[in-house]
């Protein structure tokens, strides 16, 4: 049975840990809010009405691709494309191709940044492997103009950040929704987490400084994993109604 991502792949290591995945989506939540195509997320109303539920459903989809046999993963990608196609049909216009690429680029960047923050620096080959996996996802979705390798992707990623991110009314509303659904303390943690993984251009657009209070906390959290109390911290940081979803983040299917 051919797997979409090999069992010894660094991508499985990254997406098999709940804390890494949570940092991936902390970063993506900041970048999403600035994307010039963020209005698409408001068209269905799902993200602003339940940002955490949307997060966990997206995680579930990503994990179903990373940890599945190749045929099943491709089928999941095809379904994802059909879902977006239906939204496009309902709105009567197409999601720009660059917007699809932006989402793919987020997954690449934050997979690498989050793992390096919480675990260890990745080798160039490992970064190339991360890029290759998501390149295959993008290719299956029919995206064009995808760089062939990680090295060629880096300057394209930088140009996407400068061209496609800008503050809008949706930016401020989305952060308002984050705060509403997380509460003041958890929202503060989200902001501090974003500071650690978002690119400089995102920080500039969101007026985020370089210092994060989590710089002090992360070494303590890493130690907590060694003595198996990290779940306690996760339960504190996320609302109780998402306990099942939090637990499932550490389940490695396939």
TrEMBL record:
Natural source organism: Flavobacterium paronense
Protein name as it appears in the record: Oxygenase MpaB family protein
EC number: 1.-.-.-
Keyword Oxidoreductase carried by entry: yes
Annotated InterPro entries: MPAB/Lcp_cat_dom
Top-level lineage group: Bacteria
Pfam families per the UniProt record, alphabetical: MPAB_Lcp_cat
EC supergroup of this enzyme: oxidoreductase
Ranges where the ER-bound oxygenase mpaB/mpaB'/Rubber oxygenase catalytic domain occurs: 46-149
A GO molecular function held by the record: oxidoreductase activity
Keyword vocabulary terms for this entry: Oxidoreductase
């Amino acid at each position: 049975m051919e797997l979409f991502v090999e069992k010894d792949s660094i991508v499985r290591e990254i997406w098999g840990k709940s804390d890494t995945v949570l940092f991936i989506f902390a970063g993506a939540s900041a970048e999403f809010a600035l994307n010039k195509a963020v209005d698409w997320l408001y068209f269905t109303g799902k993200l602003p009405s339940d940002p955490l539920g949307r997060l966990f459903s997206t995680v579930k989809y990503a994990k179903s691709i990373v940890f599945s046999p190749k045929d099943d993963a491709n089928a999941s990608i095809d379904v994802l494309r059909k879902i977006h196609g239906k939204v496009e049909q309902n709105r009567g216009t197409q999601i720009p191709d660059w917007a699809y690429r932006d989402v793919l680029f987020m997954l690449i960047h934050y997979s690498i940044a989050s793992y390096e923050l919480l675990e260890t620096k990745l080798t160039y080959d490992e970064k190339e492997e991360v890029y290759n996996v998501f390149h295959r996802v993008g290719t299956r979705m029919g995206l064009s103009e995808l760089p062939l390798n990680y090295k060629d992707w880096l300057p394209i990623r930088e140009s996407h950040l400068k061209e496609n991110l800008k503050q809008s009314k949706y930016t401020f509303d989305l952060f308002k929704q984050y705060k509403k659904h997380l509460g003041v303390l958890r929202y503060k943690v989200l902001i501090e987490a974003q500071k650690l993984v978002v690119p400089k251009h995102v920080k500039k657009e969101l007026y985020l400084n370089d210092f994060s209070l989590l710089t002090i906390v992360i070494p303590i959290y890493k130690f907590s994993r060694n003595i198996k109390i990290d779940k306690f911290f996760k339960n504190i940081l996320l609302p109780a109604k998402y306990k099942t979803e939090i637990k499932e983040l550490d389940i490695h299917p396939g």
